[in-house]
Amino acid sequence: MVQTNSSADIALNIPPALTLTVTREQFVELAIANRELQLERTATGELIVNPPTGGETGYRNLDIEGQIWLWNRRTRLGKAFNSSTGFHLPNGADRSPDAAWVCQERWDALTPEQKEGFIPLSPDFVVELRSKTDRIKPLQDKMQEYMENQVRLGWLIDRKNRKVEIYRQNQELELLENPATLSGEDVLPGFVLDLTEVWG
Fold first, then answer.
1. Residue 79 belongs to domain spanning
2. Is 141 a domain residue?
């Protein structure tokens, strides 16, 4: 950050065509200093700045997170995480899914220090909810990256087109048109996501 003699902060607008790369250490410093933003970093070090979501996406995200949290609270099979949580993937990327879940055994294997920072593993399960301004291709690439980093189950929920892409390890992509519910399958046993509020 450039230091000036002025007491007012100056905003830096980064054109979409400009790519900024940061080291892992720089990324952590940026994320700590800018907690109001959702920052991500690709495996090649490219910085991705995601502004806060709007109201429509925000409350739908919370509904999804809440359903996962409630199921996990009842089953106590692992830990559920919201969109503010960062995961340091095996390929070196730092990602923040809209919702995520990690089984208890894998969580318990982490040290207290690892649990405090960006979690150094891939979640077992992730959800990405497409907002109206999100382009679909970067989200699909992100889902593919999750699979390449051993996420077991992933849902890309495209509210704009009322479609869901289901990603599974070593399986073909499944596309559902306007489903009412989604099953957690064997990854989240007994969990069923009600999409009423998401589509509403």
1. 54-199
2. yes
